[in-house]
Structure formats: C-alpha cells, structure tokens
Specification:
Blueprint (H helix, E strand, L loop, with lengths): L10 E3 L5 E6 L12 E7 L8 E3 L2 E8 L1 E6 L2 E6 L3 E4 L4 E6 L5 E8 L7 E3 L2
Antiparallel strand pairs: 1-2, 2-3, 3-10, 4-9, 4-11, 5-8, 5-10, 6-7, 6-9
C-alpha cells in the first residue's frame, strides 16, 4: 500500500505559476504504477496561472475557492466540487476571482513530464 501525505510532498512553484505538491507520480513513487500523475495546486487570491499547453489529457478538480477556467476559446466560472476536462493540446489557464486561495487537484494522463508542457507567457 502506498500512502503519500500532503505535508511530506515538496512544495514548488510550477511553470504555470501555481503552488504545487506532486502527490503521486509513477516515475517517482514505487509501487505506484498507474499511468497518471496527481498533484495538489493552489493559486493565491486575485491571481492567474500562466497560459500553458500540455500534450497530455488533464482534469482539474476544484477543492475550494472560486475562479474562471479558460480552455482555448472557452471560459467558465468554477467553484468547489467542479471537475474540468482539459483536452490534450489545449491552451489553458485558471484565474482566481476570490480573495482566498483557489485549491484544486490536477490529474494528468499520461503522467506529467516537463517536456510535455509549454508555458506560453
């Protein structure tokens, strides 16, 4: 059984400018062999992530806060309990429209790799 505790995960600033803790990744967490990666992200109040694109499929699951999700030419308000599918190759970013942190899970399939992400601004 593999259990990763949030507080044991390294806290980093990702290329898209979100604060990230990678919870599960098949390249780093033995015996985790699933083809996806799972990360916890936060974005401070009134800030936006940087526009970026992944070659992988991604899902954001909003844990707390409110924001606007942008995927290519579409934008929609998001809040706790919302899941957003982000197709591979889509230009994406999220903005926090509230004062509190916007927190969300990022599920990436196949698992996230540096070379699969392009930050656009």
């Amino acid at each position: 059984m593999l259990i990763r505790r949030f507080e044991d995960c390294k806290d980093i600033i990702a290329g898209d400018n979100t604060r990230l803790r990678e919870l599960l990744h098949p390249d780093r967490d033995y015996p985790f062999t699933a083809g996806y990666s799972l990360a916890h992200a936060t974005l401070p109040g009134k800030q936006s992530s940087r526009r970026h694109r992944l070659t992988s499929d991604e899902v954001y699951y909003i844990l707390s806060g409110t924001g606007v999700m942008h995927v290519d030419e579409e934008s929609a308000e998001v809040a706790a309990g919302d899941a957003v599918d982000i197709p591979p190759g889509s230009i994406q970013w999220i903005e926090n429209t509230g004062q509190e942190d916007l927190a969300f899970l990022c599920i990436v399939f196949p698992a996230w790799r540096t070379e699969d992400e392009t930050v656009l601004d």
